[in-house]
Amino acid sequence: MKLSHVLVPLKGTSLDDEVLQLALLLAAPVGDRRARQRVQIEVIHVVEVPQALPLDAELPEAVQQGEAVLTRAEEFARQRDIDIHPEMLQARTAGTAIVDEAVERGADVIIMGYEYRRRHGEFNPGATSPYVLKNAPCRVWLVRGPRPEPESGK
After folding, report:
1. SS3 of 39, please?
2. Of 43, 50, 88, 106, whose CB is crowded by the most CB atoms within 10 A?
3. How confident is the prediction for the chain on average, in pLDDT?
4. What stretches of 38-127 adopt beta strand conformation (E)?
């Protein structure tokens, strides 16, 4: 499988470093003596805008959080001497924005994290990951966080 463009959506969760590390390994595999980056890594953070607001609404807290996520990703990559291309987007839904960016950028693969969640005691995949899995024009690698231990005494 030949890769030249990897799209990495980050949310600011505990899985961000793991997802980014996987993308960086694709760009410059460990032990690669040529020390040449082979893959372009596009890192995005999507700020979801509520329907009640205009799409270009100012959301300072969400933007500040997104900037922190992207700054952390840049530092993580810089420590490993890898270039990334970070960008923050505003959209109604993260899934749609991720798929649109994959199409626009010609991504070969999307690598994204997913925290294990439960709702009403059942595994809940949420809306973003299933949308991306269904609609992405390229491969999708989903890094799921560990399943939490069941609560004792219940």
Report:
1. coil
2. 43
3. 89
4. 40-48, 84-91, 109-114, 118-119, 122-123
